[in-house]
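Hi R.,

Here's the chain you asked about this morning:
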Amino acid sequence: MLSTVLRQVELASIWLHKRKGLLFLSDTTLRDGEQMPGVRLNPAEKLQIAQGLARVGIHSIDAGFPAAAQEEIDSIQQIAQTVRGPVINAHCRTLQSDIDAAREALEGLSIFKRAVTLFVGISKLHREQKHKKTKAEIVQMTVEAIGYAKRYFQIVTFGPEDASRTEPEFLHEIYKEAIDAGATTCGFADTVGYLTPDKAADRIKAIQDNVPNIHQAMLAVHFHNDLGLGTANALACIKQGVNIVQGTINGLGERAGNTPLEEVIMAITVHPDEYPVKCHIRTKELYELSRLVARLTGVEPAPAKAVIGGNVFRTEAGVHQDGVLKDPSVYLPFLPEQVGAPPVQLVLGKHSGRRAVAHRAAEIGRTLSDTEVGQVLQYLKQHPRRSSYASAQEVCELLDEVFLSGGPNGSLPGELATTVVEPAASEMETVELRNMNPR
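And here is the predicted structure, written out as C-alpha cells:
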C-alpha cells in the first residue's frame, strides 16, 4: 500500500515539475570529473566542493561511485550528513552489490534527498564487446536492478552508457521497460562526445515521440566534449524540452571532459527568450566555485575558457579598452559581477591605446601628460621587458622602465624621473564599472 502511495507521489511530482517548465542541473564533478587522469579528491575536498555546489543552487550532486572503494563510501556519507539542499546521488552498475554500497553510503538521508543512478552499456558495441550479452539479457539486468533499487530508493535514474550510439528502437524499448520497473528519470548519455546539436535534439525528440510512458519520468542528458560540442548539445536538448542537464564545473571529466555547467547556466541567463526555462541558480557564486574546483583538483581552466577563464574580463586591445572604459557592456556579453568575478582588467601591451595607459597610471596615483602617455606607448610597441603589464606592481615597473631607465629613446628629462605612488590595498588594478545592469 505504501509503495503504491509513494509511486503516486512520484508521478504527481514529475508531472508538476514538467508542467512548471523547470530545468534542473545535476553536477558530476565529484564522480565523472574526478575520473579525469591526475585528479584525486579526498573526502574533505569533496565536501568543500559539494558545499559550493549547494551554494550555487545545483539540484542534484553525483557524489561518487561507492562500489569503487571504502573512501568513496566515506566521502558520500560525509556529504549526505553535511550538505543541505541538493539531492545526493550514488552511481552504480546494474549489480545488487553496487546498490547495497549506495544504500550504505546514503543511509539515514531522507528518501526524497537520496538517489541512485544505474548504468549499463547498451549500444551494439557495448553489448557485444564489453558485456557479451544479448538485448534481452541487458533489458533483464536493467529491470531487475531497478526493482532491487526501488526497495531502498524512491529516486532511481536509469542512465545507460553510449545511448547516443544505440539503435533507436532498442533505446526506446529499454527506456519503456525501465520506467515500468520504477525508474523516475531516464538519462541520455553521449558517452564518447559523438553527437552534434541537431542530432542530439533529434534523438531527444525521438525518445519523446516513441517511449509511450516517458511522461512518467524526467528526461536527463549527459554530454562529453570530445568534439567541443558539449554545451551546444545540452542547449539544443533544453530547447527540445529535457528536464535535467548534467555536467561538471570547469568542464572536468573523462578525455575532453563534460559539458561545463557554468556555460549552460550563463547561456540560458543571457538568452531567456531562446531558453524560457526556470532554473534556480545563483550565478554570482560561479566564479568562486570555479576557483575552488581548480585549486582542489589542480586543473586550471584555460585562459580563454568561456565564462570563468582568466581572460574573459581582461583586454589588451586599445579599441576594446576604450570601449570598456566608456561602458563595459560595449565589449562584454555579461558583466563580471553577474558571475562573481573580479572587475574588468586593462592589460598594457603593444596593442593598448592612450586612454588605457592614462587610466592605469592614474590607478596607481600617477597623472601622465599626453607626451608621457606617448612615450609609454612607444616603449610598449618596441622592446619592453615584459610582453604585457597587468597588475598594479607591473604597471609601476613599466613606468619605472620608461621614466627611470631611459625608456625607448635613452635618457629622459630629470623631471620625469619621479617615484610612482604604490596603490592602496583597496585600489584594484581594474576598471570601475559604471554600468552595473546586466544586458
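One quick note: The chain has two domains: 2-297, 314-416.

Cheers,
M.
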